[in-house]
Design a protein that fits this description.
Layout: H1 20-23, H2 26-36, H3 38-56, H4 63-86, H5 99-130, H6 133-149, H7 153-156, H8 160-183
């Protein structure tokens, strides 16, 4: 096949006529739209995700909710530990992997980010509903800050230390409300 080059400063190869329709397909157009509007889409996704969690989160003592959060925490811990032990090693050759494994390595940070965001949403909702605002205002403000920080590119790029910090807070929050459920009382003398 003969390649023709456009007359531009970058001299990028032109797409052959037979693949021109594939390059302008709906996925390509969607990717271009996302790249142009990434900030707006991120804010809209954050707001929609928060309100989705407000509507869909069941009671704090629901076994479904507890199991879902336990699964999220286990998946986050597994991925973070794997990333921790891979530090300092040469990068993996993704091209030689099977599709599902390649997908995992390409998107595991995004999946961790999604699960942490969901857990922070849930804990913010639970703690907001369960206590007086006067008593928990500073902790609620801190949780809201972390919820927003989880969406920040700058803080996402801080690496594993920030992710482990969020994971630790989510684990502590999980056990802070699950332990009294399993114990049957909020304290030793109650």
């Amino acid at each position: 096949m003969i390649r023709r080059y456009a007359f531009s400063a970058l001299a990028e190869p032109m797409t052959p006529p037979e693949s021109a329709s594939a390059a302008t397909g709906w996925t390509h157009r969607l990717r271009i739209y996302y790249e142009k509007n990434e900030g707006s889409i991120a804010v809209l996704s954050f707001i929609c995700g928060f309100f989705f969690d407000v509507v869909t989160v069941e009671r704090v003592d629901s076994w479904y909710t507890i199991c879902q959060q336990g699964l999220y925490l286990a998946l986050i811990m597994t991925a973070l530990l794997q990333m921790f032990f891979e530090q300092g090693r040469p990068p993996l050759d993704l091209a030689g992997m099977r599709a599902i494994r390649r997908w995992y390595y390409e998107y595991r940070s995004a999946v961790i980010h999604f699960f942490l965001g969901t857990l922070l949403n849930i804990y913010t909702i639970f703690f907001f509903k369960s206590s007086s605002l006067l008593v928990s205002a500073s902790f609620m403000a801190f949780l809201v800050f972390l919820l927003i920080a989880n969406e920040s590119k700058r803080l996402k790029s801080m690496g594993l230390a920030f992710k482990f910090g969020l994971f630790s807070l989510c684990t502590l929050s999980f056990f802070a409300y699950v332990t009294p459920i399993f114990a049957g009382s909020p304290g030793f003398f109650a």
